[in-house]
Design brief:
555 residues, alpha/beta, five-stranded antiparallel beta sheet, 25 strands, binds alpha-D-glucopyranose
Length: 555
């Protein structure tokens, strides 16, 4: 187990979706100056790393995850000077900036791709994956993650490969020239003084070059692509080279979006000399749907949740470090996903916060999670901006659902739930903009917003502050940051309980995830540190109310 006290282990990361955080110039689109204006708020919360979703030039087909120019800031977000100012101002506030790094694919508007399309003999042709069709059809039957074939015809018998939307052509990592180009670009940004990168969809960069057909698994006649290009053997060579040529030379923090890494591969990814500082795993995040298809709910149980979360903790602990999260820009709000309707309130938000924030690893807060925001109701498919929501709706209809049923399931899962503007206050435009927002506001923003919560010592915001205080600035900090994770009371149904221990320090966390009371024995005297409700703590027994979370300090 790693014992090194790297700086990013103690960090508290806050994820910003720049388009929806704060708009400084009234164009309805959040921007860098808007983020600068909110650094005091973030400092008050107590976070010290800000991860920005992509702000590079982009046609925004996938909100910045389709980059048309890797070396410039999209004018809608501001200028390079604004970014430099943000990095400097953040440092003054004790914070580092982490940028998104999207290098599995770029935009079809990127000049590399435009050149590759225009001229078959262009050196840029090899930056992408082009293949001839097979009997007038696509080279293989894989389905892209946003629907339809992974192959897009170019009109001259050839096809290009895209893991995501057709406007996001995959980069060909087999090309050494391309790889060199990417390393140069990564170092350019790190030289600016960034804290590091969140690395997008990185386990897709290696493909099975034979592109075999797989068994059809959907009404569209296509097959899931994962066996052919998710964490495909040989990827370790590319990732090792990437890390050695860039990240490892800067001592920066990296967190990779890495679905598909088996436990046996963890050490390569997050071990002492791993490719990354930590990775996002998906065991708990995707347990609510089958095969990533939103219209196939899984009927998960608390038992599954505990198992997914705890197994992933134990796997990362054996070799390295974890990245702990419940929400991000690809997920619906956690209150809706994990808790029943009656507890989707401040107490519920504090419950979930306690549960994940004190796990072993670096915790991530997604903008608005610190206010306990819930999903936003979308009345029709036209209201969605997110291309994946539109695709999943069509997929639901194709699989035989009624329009209202498909809409209900997409509402529950839509990425737009967490992408709508941040509610700074209860005014008509939520303090987000003076203009017309790019997507609608949350109807609950009048009641749930930053302004009302900052001054309320009982708010979800204040609770997050207490969690950060406890984790980073208390006598239990070593245990809560570096201490071992150990599941306890696993024989008790619907209880998620664990200890964190470091030398003489010990913290116990109990989360009763059910509408019933639950009693647990205490084998040693303990002191109450935090809870989302009134605590019944006796000498040797703790009684937990429905959906109560309690943190105790061992003595
Ligand atoms: C990642 C991003 C997601 C994006 C996709 C394609 O999963 O988190 O938002 O749509 O990659 O870049």
């Amino acid at each position: 187990m790693q014992r090194k006290k790297d700086w990013w282990k103690a960090a508290n990361v806050y994820q910003i979706y720049p388009k929806s955080f704060c708009d400084s110039n009234g164009d309805g689109f959040g921007d860098l100056k808007g983020i600068i204006s909110k650094l005091d708020y973030l400092q008050l919360l107590g976070v010290d790393v800000l991860w920005l979703c992509p702000i590079y030039c982009s046609p925004m087909r996938d909100n910045g995850y389709d980059i048309s120019d890797y070396y410039n800031i999209d004018p809608r977000f501001g200028t390079m000077a604004d970014l430099d100012e943000l990095i400097a101002e953040a440092k003054r506030h004790g914070m580092q900036i982490v940028m998104d790094l999207v290098i599995n694919h770029c935009s079809d508007q990127n000049h590399w791709f435009q050149e590759a399309l225009r001229d078959k003999n262009s050196p840029y042709r090899d930056y992408f994956i082009f293949r001839e069709g097979k009997d007038g059809k696509a080279p293989c039957n894989w389905r892209s993650i946003f629907g339809g074939s992974v192959w897009e015809p170019t009109g001259d018998g050839a096809y290009y490969f895209h893991t995501f939307a057709k406007e996001q052509p995959d980069l060909n990592w087999e090309s050494e020239t391309l790889r060199e180009e990417l390393y140069r670009m990564v170092n350019f940004w790190l030289d600016k003084g960034l804290g590091g990168f969140r690395v997008d969809a990185i386990t897709y960069i290696k493909k099975n070059p034979a592109f075999p057909d797989f068994a059809v698994d959907g009404a569209d006649g296509l097959a899931g692509l994962n066996p052919g290009c998710q964490n495909y053997p040989g990827i370790e060579v590319f990732l090792g080279e990437l890390a050695a040529r860039t990240f490892h030379q800067h001592g920066c923090m990296t967190v990779a979006e890495a679905p598909g890494v088996p436990e046996a591969g963890m050490e390569d990814f997050v071990g002492e000399n791993g490719f990354f500082s930590m990775i996002f795993t998906f065991d708990h995040a995707d347990m609510d749907v089958l095969d990533g298809v939103w219209c196939r709910p899984s009927g998960w149980t608390v038992h599954d949740f505990r198992q997914g979360l705890f197994d992933s903790q134990l796997a990362s602990q054996r070799v390295g470090w974890a990245a702990n999260y419940l929400e991000n820009h690809d997920q619906p709000r956690s209150l809706n996903k994990y808790l029943p309707a009656e507890i989707r309130n401040a107490a519920g938000a504090k419950f979930l916060a306690t549960l994940y924030y004190l796990l072993r690893g670096t915790p991530y807060i997604y903008q608005g999670e610190e206010l306990g925001l819930v999903n936003c109701p979308f009345e029709s498919v036209e209201e969605f901006d997110d291309l994946s929501s539109v695709d999943q709706y069509a997929r639901g209809l194709e699989e035989g659902l009624s329009e209202s049923e498909a809409l209900r399931l997409v509402n529950a899962r839509s990425r737009d739930n967490s992408r709508i503007p941040f509610p700074w206050d209860g005014t008509e435009k939520a303090g987000f903009t003076t203009g017309t927002p790019w997507i609608k506001f949350h109807p609950a923003g009048k009641q749930i917003n930053a302004q009302t919560q900052i001054s309320n010592s009982d708010s979800v915001f204040s609770y997050y502050r207490q969690l950060i205080q406890l984790r980073n600035h208390s006598v239990y900090s070593d245990a809560l940051i570096y201490g071992d994770f150990r599941p306890i009371c696993t024989e008790v149904e619907n209880l998620l309980a664990y200890t964190r221990e470091y030398e003489e320090q010990k913290v116990l966390v109990f989360c009763n995830m059910q509408a019933a009371f639950c009693t647990v024995p205490l084998y040693q005297p303990a002191k109450l540190l935090l809870s989302n409700g009134n605590v019944e703590l006796e000498q040797d027994v703790l009684t937990l109310h429905p959906y109560q979370a309690v943190v105790l300090g061992g003595q």
